[in-house]
Structure formats: C-alpha cells, structure tokens
Design brief:
Blueprint (H helix, E strand, L loop, with lengths): L2 E2 L18 H6 L14 E7 L5 E7 L1 H4 L4 E6 L21 E2 L5 E7 L2 H10 L1 E6 L6 H4 L15 E11 L2 H7 L2 E8 L12 E6 L6 E5 L4 H12 L6 E5 L11 H17 L3 E4 L2 H7 L2 E2 L2 E9 L5 E13 L5 H10 L10 E9 L5 E2 L6 H19 L3 H8 L18 H12 L1 H8 L7 E13 L10 E7 L5 E5 L8 H13 L6 E3 L17 H6 L1 H20 L15 E4 L2 E4 L7 E2 H10 L5 E6 L19 E13 L5 E11 L6 H20 L5 E2 L2 E2 L17 E7 L16 H4 L1 H13 L10 H6 L5
Parallel strand pairs: 1-31, 2-13, 11-12, 14-18, 16-17, 21-22, 28-31
Antiparallel strand pairs: 2-6, 3-5, 3-7, 4-6, 8-17, 9-15, 10-11, 10-13, 15-16, 19-27, 20-21, 20-26, 23-24, 24-25, 27-28, 29-30
C-alpha cells in the first residue's frame, strides 16, 4: 500500500515488507510454547484460590491432600519463609492468610500428574472469616469505606496521584461562553490472549541455578520474582522466553508470580515442575484493563475554542498495585486529549478495591480516556451547534501549539491525518444524513475520533536499552537484546534495523529471543517502545559493527591493490559487500572478511547502550517534556444498529496512523488490523463482569470477544513524517492501533440512535436502554 506523507524514504531494508522471521513456524505449528515443553522426571504444580473477595483464613488443613499417593508437596503461607512478593507498593502475595481478592492463592500443590494436583487441591480444607469489602470506585472513595490496605486508609493509592496544572483554569471558565460537564465510566477488560500463562522450572543440581522457561512478556521481570521467592541473587536465576501466544501487557506480574511459585516447588521437590493456568485461572489472576471513572468540565467560546478543561480521572487498581503509578503518569499527560487548551487542571489517581487487579493492557489508559474524551468533544460541538469535525480542526494539536504538559510540539500531522480520513470516508455527508433516520428496524451510523500517543516510556520510566551484534565466520549476524518478542514482530523489526545499520541483507541478520543470562536488562517490552526507542541500541550496535568490520577489511589487506585507500572512511559496507568510494564496482564479500577476521583473532562483535535524552516534568504541575515525540491517529467507524435488539454491527473501520517510518509496512498493517478488532470488542461486547469481587464470567462462553465472523471491512492508511527522534524515524503503533477505535464506534452509535453510551461497553441493553440491567 502507499505510504502517505511528504517524505520519500530511501532505506534498503527498513521501510520494506520483508517476511516475518517466526512466521512459518507459527502458521505450520512448528512453534513451541512453554506449555508444550516436557522434561525427564517432570512433575506438575497448581494453586488453590480463595474464591473470596476479602477474608481471613481461620483454618487450613492439608493432611488429606498430603496423604494422596503421588502428591509430593503441599505448601501454605505458614510453610513459606517469604509469602509476600517484592512488587513494591501493596505487593502481591505468593501465598496469603488474608485474602484481598478472589484470585488470591492460599496453597500450592506439587504432584506426579496434573490429575493428582487437581485431586489434592480439592482435598485441602479451608475455613474463612469473611470481611467487609469495597468494590467500586465510588464506594472506595466514600468517607469511612473499608480499607483494602492499612497503609492506604482512604483507599487512594498515593503514589499514583498525578496532577496537571497549566494556565489558570478558573480564569478560563470565567471567559467561557459555555460550560459543559459530563461523566463516563469504563469496564474491566480481559486480554484474551490465545495462550494461557505457563512456566517450567528446572534447577541445576550442580550449581543450583534455577532455569525458567516461561510465557513471559518481560523475562527480566519474571527473574526478579523468582530470585525473590528463592532468596537468591539474580545471577542464580536464568529465564528463557519461549514463543509467546499473545500478551498485550497481561503476562508481566502474573507470569512472574506463577514462575516464583513454580520455582519454589521445583527447589522443594528437586524435580522439574510445570505450572500452567487454565483459562479460568488466567481470568482470575491476570491483570485487566483498569476501569476508569472520568469526570470532565469544559469551557468553550462561541467561536469553538476550548478555553478551560478540568478533569478527574480515577482508576480502579483492584486489590494490588500493578503499575498503576506508571499508567497514571501517561493518563495525566493525555488527560485533555489531542487538543491544545490554554488552561488545564486535571487530577489522575487510582483507588484500591477488593476486585481483580487492573494492570498493563494495550493502550495503557488511552482507550479509556479517549473513549470518554472524544464523546465529550462531540457533545460540546452539539451544544455549540457546530460540526464536530470543524470543532476538532479548531482545537486539535498543530505544529507550534502546546499540549497538556506545556510542550511546544513539532512534526504534528494530526489535522492532515484527520482531514484525509474524513474525506476518504465521506464522513461529513454521511454524518448529517444519518442524524435524520427514523427507521425502527435498522439505522446506520458513522463516527470519528482522534488521538495522540507519547512514544516510548518518556517521563514514566527510563527508556534505555542495550544490544549486542555478533558477526559469524559465514557472514551471518546474531542480534541479542534485552527486549522481547511478544508476537508483535519485534524479531523481524530488529533484524531489519540491524541489517540496515550493518549493511548486510535482511536474511543474514537474526534475533532469536531473550535469555536473561546472555544480555543486560533493557527494560520492559511495553508502551509500544520496542521499535521506536528500544531498538535504538540495535541501530547503534549495527553502526558499530559496520565500523569494526570495515576496519578489519582494511587491516587484513582486502583493498591493498588500491594504494590510496588509507582510511575506513573510504570503505563502504552495503548489501553484504565491501567496496571503496573510488571503485564501487570492485566488491569484497562480507563473509570473506568475517572468515579472515575469525582466523586472525580480530574483533567481530560489538555491544552498545542507548539512553535517550531525559524527559523531565514537574510532578506538582505536570509541566515539562513528557515524551520525546508523539504519534497521531484518526479512526472513522461505520456501523448499523438493530433498533429492535440493540445489536451493533461494525461494518467498516477506516484507520489512519502517523507511524513516522513504517519499519515493516506489512507488520504495521497487521498491528492495526488486530488493534481494530480489539477496539471493537472494547466498544461493543467485552466486559469482565465483577459482582462483589467475584468474577461472573471466567471463560469465553460468556466473555464475548469479536471473532472472524464479526470482523469489519478495514481500510488502513499509513502516514509517515520526517521526525528523527525514533529509530530510523519510527513512531509507536502497537497501542495506537486500538486506542481510538472504541470512541469512533461510540460516536457512530450516537449518530445512529441519538443515545450516548456513557458506560462501556455498548452492549444490547445499553444501546436500547442507555444502561445495563444489574
């Protein structure tokens, strides 16, 4: 497909749709996952979960379980020297006697077979004293509400509080011709990855090193938990990331906890141990997309300019903190949408409840915020009697404008992307036409939404990374980095980036996966940072290896026939061949220089570390540089609503995204296709239903995700620009691909029915009645 934007890029490997490195293995079934692994003398582990939202264990009897032949170990919190994890604020419990949510584990079992594990778990007798619980955001912030954790008596997670203060919001409201206030509420969402969590632990009897094969999104994160529960140094733990069957943020803390329990059993019984989650266990322990309560007050002038924006964004942490403080940093930075507003006052914070915990999920707060904000924008435009597209044109971010943190922006193509998408979909004509429908059977609707996303980690967390490149004697190159392939195509993108920088063909470069004993920790593979920032070290080490091998070619006399060649600056390595600037047609194969370098003992490897310029904000006001740059996107959704049943048929989604440089356009499109379907589910069908802390739907027979049968027609438009701050100019796309979709669908529903969906998702009841029956 054509890449849109002004710049024509002339890369040899980057910016081309080369085949995925792991594609054939996955489509042919050759790929092996952690749950597929089998080892000699391997046994199995399992967890006993409380099923209660808040309770104390008053009695636990494990004798019947221990007496079952083939049961090797039964462990409770009293048996474990360190039942509390290292997670920091409100840490998880490996095993607990005070239950905070239904997924808390009160015992673990190890046995010869999985069937014996299940039998032993059923044989454990537990008595509980139920305690008062708190379950909703509104209940959690009521004076006198039960405290989930003693250190947070008002349930507010203090480390998750992020204010934004820009301009003078009261002055802005005083100048406004119209003030509008609205409230929106979002739901728990399950990641719904195909592969449930799985780990296998093996301890080396000679040196005691615990090796973990896991379905980890972040192997180094998993290592931290395993070292913690065993009370050993991190050098005594080795984590291999196996092929990952999806994650989207869900296989971070949860897999770390699973691996820790598995490693503990492994050391206890002295045999390899496998632990896998059932789908129901995955629903209970894996983190969910945080629900948000969004309260906004906005002041506007008659001419359409927004002059004041005030907001409170409260998210439901659940029983334990799962990166809420980092997520809320991002939520605060994006708290007034993709708009430039002179006066902003927002407060973002999380509250603890006795529910399943929220955590990292694709978008990291943006799907929730944009879903509310972009409906609010349309509600304001309607109050003004203004076309919603024109209202966005007036207020959207542009070159030279400032965002919520006061950063003066450049390389902003928000309006270009929006106008292109609106024109391509005939948005304005259809939007006006559909407003006047009267059919009681079916009605069409069209909706638009825009969004922006800070690229990389920015001020949230350090965004540094390291990479190694090794040239082999046959001219192939191995890439090693601490970032992990999670299904998004990182192995392929890194191989392209390395090959581009080194000057070898794509086929010669390979990144096989992450081993915590082979490379330095490069931070988590999250926040769509893998390509935009995480691969900067891969690019950097590629350039370094290029320099080393040119020096070898010169020192080894490969160009001695060209007497005037005295410096490596006169030597070029590209397409797998060396040549000089004076005689480009006289070529020397890269593999020949590699072979000669090996047998003369010359350096053939390099390691580089990349640390981006610091992004610094004032924590009291949020003002400062929050991210190095931003990606921009626009989505138009076209739907049909069955006015008798409330069913929303998403028929077409047009998604346009600024990706800076499309490192691999085919992979970019794949990310966007998947993001559209995930956004569709968020908008229309998906909800983890929690009642007094208990999860009512724990499998896919009653948690409804869109399937291939529900997939709309998709029109993807990739925009590029010349922003140099990402790797070869790349920007984020994995998370932007899904962030805006739900809001566009919500606006399309209103266009069709005249009913706002202020509580997500837009299921049958809410579309027909405006609320869900409890």
């Amino acid at each position: 497909m054509p890449l849109l934007g002004e710049l024509k890029k002339n890369y040899k490997i980057v910016n081309h749709s080369v085949p995925r490195i792991d594609g054939i293995d996955k489509v042919t079934g050759r790929a092996h996952y952690a749950a597929d692994l089998k080892f000699v003398d391997m046994v199995y582990g399992g967890c006993l979960r409380s099923g209660r939202s808040h309770a104390k264990v008053t009695r636990i009897d494990t004798e019947k379980a221990k007496a079952i032949p083939g049961v090797l170990a039964v462990v409770t919190a009293d048996d474990m020297p360190k039942p509390k994890s290292c997670a920091g604020n409100a840490p998880y419990m490996y095993l607990t006697k005070e239950v905070k949510y239904a997924g808390d584990v009160v015992a673990i079992v190890c046995a010869e077979t999985k069937a014996l594990v299940d039998e032993a778990l059923k044989a454990i007798e537990v008595e509980y004293e139920d305690l008062p619980g708190v379950y909703t955001i509104r209940d959690a912030i009521k004076p006198g509400a039960p405290a989930v954790h003693e250190q947070y008596p008002d349930n507010v997670f203090t480390d998750s509080i992020y204010p934004i203060r820009k301009g003078d919001v009261e002055k802005g409201f005083a100048e406004a011709d119209l003030i509008i206030e609205r409230e929106y509420e979002t739901q728990y969402i399950e990641h719904s990855y195909i592969e449930p969590e799985a780990v296998v632990c093996i301890q080396n009897p000679a040196d005691g090193v615990m090796t973990v094969h896991s379905s980890s999104q972040n192997p180094f994160f998993t290592r931290r938990y395993v070292a913690d529960i065993l009370g050993v140094g991190m050098h005594d733990v080795r984590v291999f990331q196996e092929t990952l069957g999806g994650s989207f943020g869900g296989k971070e803390e949860g897999v770390g906890m699973l691996a820790a329990r598995c490693a503990y059993l492994c050391r206890l019984v002295g045999r390899p141990v496998k632990m896998t989650f059932s789908r129901e266990e995955s629903f209970l322990e894996s983190a969910k997309r945080h629900p948000f309560l969004l309260r906004y007050k906005v002041g506007v002038k008659k001419d359409g300019h927004i002059v004041a924006w005030e907001g409170t964004q409260i998210d439901n942490c659940g029983a334990y903190n799962n990166q809420t403080q980092f997520m809320n940093s991002r939520a605060s930075i994006h708290s007034c949408g993709a708009y430039t507003i002179p006066n902003v006052k927002t407060d973002t914070y999380g509250v603890f409840t006795n529910n399943i915990h929220g955590g990292a999920m694709r978008g990291y707060s943006s799907p929730q915020l944009i879903w509310g904000q972009e409906q609010l924008i349309e509600e304001i435009a309607e109050e003004l009697g203004m076309d919603p597209l024109e209202f966005r044109r007036i207020n959207c971010l542009k070159d030279g404008t400032t965002n919520a943190t006061g950063t003066v922006l450049d390389h902003v193509n928000m309006q270009e992307v929006m106008d292109y998408t609106a024109e391509k979909t005939d948005y304005q004509r259809k939007h006006e036409e559909y407003k006047h429908q009267t059919s009681t059977k079916k009605r069409k609707g069209i909706g638009i939404a825009i969004g922006h996303r800070g690229c990389g980690l920015g001020a949230e967390s350090p965004d540094a990374s390291g990479a190694m490149a090794i040239a082999n004697e046959d001219g192939t190159v191995l890439i090693n980095t601490g970032l992990a392939e999670n299904g998004q195509g990182l192995k392929t993108a890194f191989a392209q980036i390395a090959a581009e920088a080194i000057g070898v063909p794509y086929e010669a470069s390979r990144f096989y996966g992450t081993d915590t004993q082979a490379i330095a920790d490069s931070g988590m593979t999250v926040a769509s940072r893998g390509t935009v920032m995480g691969s900067q070290s891969t690019r950097k080490v590629g350039y370094k290896l290029n320099e080393i091998m040119r020096a070898n070619a010169l020192a080894l006399g490969f160009f001695k026939d060209q007497e005037n060649v005295k410096s490596i600056e006169q030597i070029v390595l590209e397409d797998g061949f060396f040549h000089t600037t004076e005689k480009p047609d006289v070529k020397v194969a890269f593999k020949d220089v590699c072979n000669a370098s090996l047998w003369t003992g010359r350096q053939m490897a390099a390691y580089e570390w990349y640390m981006p310029p610091a992004c610094i904000q004032d924590h009291h006001t949020g003002q400062g540089v929050a991210f190095p740059n931003y990606a921009y996107g626009c989505v138009v959704a076209e739907i049909e609503v069955d006015m008798e049943t409330g069913y929303v048929d998403v028929q077409k989604v047009t998604a346009s995204h600024d990706v800076g440089t499309a490192v691999n356009p085919a992979l970019v499109m794949g990310q966007i296709y998947g993001g559209i379907l995930m956004g569709q589910g968020y908008a229309t069908t998906e909800e983890v239903e929690v009642s007094n802390g208990k999860v009512r739907n724990q499998n896919f027979e009653n948690y409804i995700v869109p399937t291939a049968a529900d997939m709309p027609e998709m029109d993807v438009n990739i925009f590029e620009c010349d922003d140099p701050r990402g790797t070869f100019g790349a920007k984020s796309i994995g998370e932007p691909a899904t962030e805006v979709v739900g809001a566009a669908i919500a606006n399309a529903i209103y266009n069709a029915t005249g009913k706002r969906i202020r509580e997500n998702p837009a299921n049958l009841e809410r579309v027909l009645l405006g609320k869900k029956l409890r």
